[in-house]
Design brief:
With about 250 residues, this protein is α/β, with parallel strands linked by helices. It is built from eleven helices and eight strands. The protein has an eight-stranded parallel sheet with strand order 7-6-5-4-3-2-1-8. Helix 1 links the parallel strand 1 and strand 2. It is globular and about 45 Å long.
Length: about 250
């Protein structure tokens, strides 16, 4: 059975003081929720401070991005080796990285490889635009992104995939549970074609896109959806705690 996972992506929000206040506000209750993996992904500048707060708890940390080179003259970049010891997970290929920073499938593939080599667990993001969906290209696009991101990557169950339809991110326009489950079934089938059914069934695939405490149950109740990559709602203590607790309760049934 796949253990559900809920990751909070804080994006470019909170300074160090605000980040630590947010963690302190939810720490005890979040640590007490069992049956689900909990990952916080704050900005780079807060990773060290939050690591100290969550030490000896069940809460894990993730970075929001990384560069694929291990070191060198790459001003402003953070390598996977710099993240080792600070966090366990790293988000790779988020739609905002693809859109605003022109990250290509090749770059994302290089990042996945570098993360795995360093022992980090990638949360690989894939998803289609509204135009892709309206023109019937959802399957082609997301299967193509999975193929490209995992090219020459050795089969592993350390990978997490997040399906995040671009049209449902930060728009308040969440997809339906049926739509998401169907798309995640495509992703799982694509992984099976690359790495076999056993690995495909072991990998957790999350949904990300305007997830709230009011709609999480619709997604988590579907068999192929293993958790959520939560954006804005992860910055609200009550919202995030509710999303995590609902996920744990529904998946334990």
């Amino acid at each position: 059975m796949r253990v559900p996972l809920v990751a909070g992506n804080w994006k470019m929000n909170t300074n160090v003081s605000e980040a630590t206040d947010l963690v302190r506000a939810m720490l005890a209750e979040l640590d007490g929720i069992t049956g689900v993996e909990k990952v916080l992904c704050p900005p780079f500048v807060s990773l060290t401070a939050i690591k100290e707060l969550v030490q000896d708890t069940s809460i894990q940390l993730g970075a929001q991005n990384m560069y694929f080179e291990h070191k060198g003259a790459y001003t402003g970049e953070i390598s996977s080796r710099m993240l080792v010891g600070l966090c366990n997970f790293v988000i790779i290929g988020h739609s905002e990285r693809r859109q605003y920073f022109t990250e290509t499938d090749e770059i994302i593939n290089s990042k996945v490889k570098a993360a795995l080599i360093s022992g980090l667990r990638p949360i690989l993001c894939v998803g289609e635009s509204l135009e892709h969906r309206e023109t019937g290209r959802t399957e082609t696009v997301i299967a193509g992104q999975v193929h490209a991101a995992l090219a020459e990557v050795t089969s592993t169950d350390q990978l997490v995939i997040a399906y995040e339809p671009i049209w449902a991110i930060g728009t308040g326009m969440a997809a339906t549970g049926e739509q998401v489950n169907a798309s995640i079934s495509i992703i799982r089938g694509t992984v099976a074609s690359l790495w076999g059914n056993d690995t495909s069934e072991a990998i957790r695939i999350l949904y990300g896109g305007s997830v709230t405490l009011d709609n999480i149950a619709e997604f988590i109740g579907k068999p192929d959806i293993d958790g959520a990559l939560v954006g804005g709602a992860s910055l609200n203590t009550d919202q995030f705690l509710s999303i995590v607790s609902q996920t744990a309760a529904i998946k334990s049934r």
